[in-house]
Amino acid sequence: MPLKTLDDVKRMVATTAQWFVLGRCKPALEVFRDGLSALGVLGAAKEHPDSLRPLFCDLPEKLTAERMEELFQAKTSPAGSSEAVTESLVLSRGSDFLQDVEDEDIDITLSDILFFTTGCRVLPQCEMPVTIEFLHELPSRFPTANTCSSILRPPVVHQAYESFKADLTFGILNARVRVADLAAKDSVVATAAAHDPDNYLLKVTSDGVIELGEPVTDDYRCSFPRGSSGLKGFFFVRENIIDMSYKLDKKKTPFVPPGSVRHLCWELQKKRNNIYKVALI
């Protein structure tokens, strides 16, 4: 195809992109389609797309206190024993704790609790029960967990709910590792909103995570109260999806919360005019 005009170039780019995304994997897609058709799955998906979407798409289930309680399966002592009485009290306090977290009365989220217990930020598609064991033999003020086996061990030594809540919160917060804490000035991180699967690249200009001394509204009209922590920087804007080129946009300065930072990126290869070649994340 001779390239004589700018429109010819655009058509060539569109054709190349279509082949890169669809054409080269067409045989594999056809085999996949035939496999789904063999058992009637493809027809059912076309007829009931909304019902079958959760089977094919990763749609994180919203975490609630009630849903979290459904996951927990307590390993209790024999009824009537002093340990069973203590465990019943701990489970009751645990229910109150989950409700306080859902009501945002505590500086952690239900996702933090799930991550502390299982290593997962969201619920997987398959059922994942969590076993609760109690620290009778090793009394401690703070919770422990085994993420490989999905075991949570809450403390049993507290006499009051407030101290129970404070120590649970402290234990979970101090076990949480934030990717944002590993970021430094001039590093590049990938950020995403809570329910947004797309990543946005940010070149960090602050000296790591900073705390705001006063309320701030950034150039993207996002407001943050005094005391908020996060990273400042500039976003990259995708220029060319084929070779993953990005342009650094220095027109607006965003402020992103630590929890939105998902990945640290490899060192970027600078090309020209603030265009960078970005490795896939």
UniProtKB/TrEMBL annotation:
<dbReference type="Pfam" id="PF00632">
    <property type="entry name" value="HECT"/>
</dbReference>
<keyword id="KW-0833">Ubl conjugation pathway</keyword>
<dbReference type="GO" id="GO:0004842">
    <property type="term" value="F:ubiquitin-protein transferase activity"/>
</dbReference>
<feature type="domain" description="HECT">
    <location>
        <begin position="6"/>
        <end position="168"/>
    </location>
</feature>
<dbReference type="InterPro" id="IPR000569">
    <property type="entry name" value="HECT_dom"/>
</dbReference>
<dbReference type="InterPro" id="IPR035983">
    <property type="entry name" value="Hect_E3_ubiquitin_ligase"/>
</dbReference>
<protein>
    <submittedName>
        <fullName>G2/M phase-specific E3 ubiquitin-protein ligase</fullName>
    </submittedName>
</protein>
